[in-house]
Amino acid sequence: MIKTNNLSKTYRLGKVSVHAMIDVSICIQGGEFVAVMGPSGSGKSTLMNLLGCLDQPSSGSYHLENFDIKNLNQNQLAEVRNKRIGFVFQNFNLLPRASALENVELPLLYGRVKNSQILALKALERVGLAKRSKHRPNELSGGERQRVAIARAIVNKPAIVLADEPTGNLDTSTGNEIMSIFSSLNSEGTTIILVTHERAIASFARRTIEMKDGYIYKDKINSEIAV
Amino acid sequence: MLIFDLFKMAIRSLIANTMRTFLTALGMIIGVASVISMISIGEGARQQTLSTIAKFGTNIITIKPGKKKTRHVSSDNVNTLVLEDAEAINTLIPLITGVAAQVYRSAQIKYGNKNTNTTVRGTGIKYLEIANFTLYQGRYFSSQEVRSIRRVAILGSTVVKNLFGDITPIGKEIKIDGSNYLIIGSTIPKGALSWFDPDDQIFIPVTTAQKRLFGVNNIQSIDIQAEKIEDLEIIKERVESLLRIRHGIRKTEESDFHVQNSSQWLNSWGDAAKTFTYLLGGIAGISLLVGGIGIMNIMLVSITERTKEIGIRIAIGAKKSEIMQQFLIESVLISFIGGGIGIMIGIMISRTVSKIGGWDTIVSNQSIMIAFGFSVGVGIFFGYYPARKAANLNPIDALRYE
Fold it and tell me: Could you give the angle at which helices A100-110 and A142-154 cross, rounded to 10 degrees?
């Protein structure tokens, strides 16, 4: 499903080159639940951006579902982000003027999917928020907003959901609720890759990749999985 | 994304910032309204000038005396035209339907205890026809009366009104500079121009005017009417050469008269009025430009403000072209709304002007289409740069933007 080979990313800040990620080679199968951990500046967000096709690597290759990302043009990458990958962010990133339903509907509109309202409502039901579909983000609690964001991420039924610290702005119990949604999505076959720096959150995943200074320094299967 | 959804989104974001949208559109409103009203006012003024000028006839050649030059010394003598010149033209030049020699001066007219100051025009029997006057009552003087230097007069309608009011003037006698003249006719009003009222004059035989009233031998102008407008140039040339021979002017010398072609006059007037219209339109066009820059300005602000939104849209699969379309539609919508309101206001302004100013304004479909097309064009032109800027945002930076 996901295969990277010596993937590196170097940012240029004036004359100084910053190596955000160095020679990352990972292989993630369909249906896996992976947590990426590491201190800030370790390159985990860079990895997520590259996996999510929001950024291009400086060197190395990235194959997504056997397609070499290098060979895709801008419009095809947009389609990959729209159909193949769902994003969940730490700060939710919902459109403030749109209702929950409209936020969830948006990927369907960009993907020109018919019956978008019905499908969007189903996705909201899936995260238990059908009743709040007419509310705007500022009328929802943090946990509810994140659930809307998850609904938006899964509405096009992507194979992969990328979550960048999805519980970072939530308290522990709300965070656990969010994580159980990810668990149940994973049990239905969705590949989930999430970035976190909390061990407790990482323990929901079956595999943990730990990064440091742009390298992967530990990649292990979790023995105990939180439920 | 379907264009319909893009429109819906654009309208929603315009409504969310109603005040800002209105102020942005205001630039377009003022621009389009001023283009429409200025062009309509200029166009109305032009049409009116042309139609009033056309009342004086368009197939007319006018000869006026000029300065006589002898051995490069020009004298002040402008009495170079005489009645015989007019007669010679009448008999020797082909393709013409009439010649009218004229002397005119303002004089004091009295009837009973009323008096008025008006232009007395001594002229020939063809003058009414050439100058597009129509008799209202009575008759015009005959060639017999011209030859025998009779004291008869035809009154313009303004003179009739001033001296007689509602009484029929035919058969009455008026005093011009002290001598009695018999009124034999009056003319239908032609309508006044702002600088000149053609109905405020009286017509008497040219011989009477020369010998009995003004005591002169020269004439002040000769009007020649051509059968067809196309012949004006040929007639003009022939008249020129005839008069040069009659006045004994050598080849190297300048003529002591001027020949003017009324259609040239009309054309140059029309051109001047057109230039005036373009000038007005051009000045108004500048405000359209300023309005467009206003749109660009606001769109740039709006894009900076919505950087994060753009990042989100890219992350969930918006194509560059879709981001660009979204912002282009917004700017075009603003200019479209502004253009629409501007047209209505422009029409209102030109109607008000024609009501207050008392002259017709012409709002042509053409000017509406041009103004509207321009406003939408301005929307696209000035919306393009901000929209492209939005589409080219780096999604990662955009998502991090606070």
Answer: 20
**Residues sharing a CB contact under 8 Å with residue A94, sequence separation 6 or more, in sequence order:** A100, A103, A137, A145, A148, A149, A152, B312
Check residue B55 and give its pLDDT: 66
Helices B365-391, B262-305: crossing angle, 10 deg rounding:
30
Q: Which of A74, A112, A152 sits opposite B316 (nearest CB)?
A: A152
pLDDT at B67: 67
Over chain A (227 residues), what is each successive 10-residue block's mean pLDDT? 92 86 92 92 90 91 91 92 93 92 94 92 93 94 95 94 93 93 94 92 92 90 72
What is the domain range of residue A43?
Answer: 31-53+75-221
- Rounded to the nearest integer, the mean pLDDT of chain B is 86
* CB contact (8 A) between residue A87 and residue B315: yes
Q: Tell me how far apart the alpha carbons of residues A95 and A149 are, in angstroms, rounded to a whole number.
A: 10
Tell whether B245 and B363 lie within a shared domain.
Answer: no
The confidence score (pLDDT) of residue A59 equals: 93
- Residue-level pLDDT at B76: 53
A24 inside domain: no
Does the structure show a pLDDT above 70 at B309? yes
Domain count, chain A: 1
Lowest mean pLDDT among A201-215, B52-66, B140-154: B52-66
**Chain B residues with CB inside 8 Å of A75's CB?**
319-321
d(CA B300, CA B297): 5
What's the rounded Cα separation, in Å, for the pair B391 and B323? 5
Residue B110 within a domain: yes
Q: How many residues does chain A have?
A: 227
| B116 strand-pairing partners | B109
Of A49, A107, A112, the CB nearest to B316: A107
Res A217: pLDDT:
87
What is the residue range of B170's domain? 67-255
Nearest to B396 among A54, A74, A156 (CB): A54
What pLDDT sits at residue A32? Answer: 94
Question: Is A172 inside a domain boundary?
Answer: yes
For residue A10, being part of any structural domain is answered with no
% pLDDT > 70, chain B: 93
Determine the pLDDT at residue A7: 92
Tally of domains in chain B: 2
Do residues B322 and B192 both lie within one domain?
no
Determine the pLDDT at residue B282.
Answer: 85
Contact state of A78 with B12 under an 8 Å Cβ cutoff:
no
Q: How far is B310 from chain A (nearest CA, A)?
A: 10
In the block, tokens 């990662």 appear at B396
Q: Does one domain contain both B326 and B375? A: yes
> If you count residue pairs, one on A and one on B, with CB atoms under 8 Å apart, how many are there?
63
ipTM of the assembly? 0.93
> Does A40 reach chain B within 8 Å, measured CB to CB?
no
Residues 6+ apart with CB under 8 A from A71: none
Query: What band does B367 get if pLDDT is binned at 50, 70 and 90?
Result: confident
Q: Classify each residue of B335-360 as buried b or exposed e, where b means 16 or more C-beta atoms within 10 Å of its C-beta.
A: bbbbbbbbbebbbebbeebbeeeeeb
If interface means Cβ-Cβ distance under 8 Å, which residues of chain B face chain A?
1-2, 5, 12-13, 16, 308-309, 311-322, 395-396, 399
DSSP letter at B218?
Answer: B
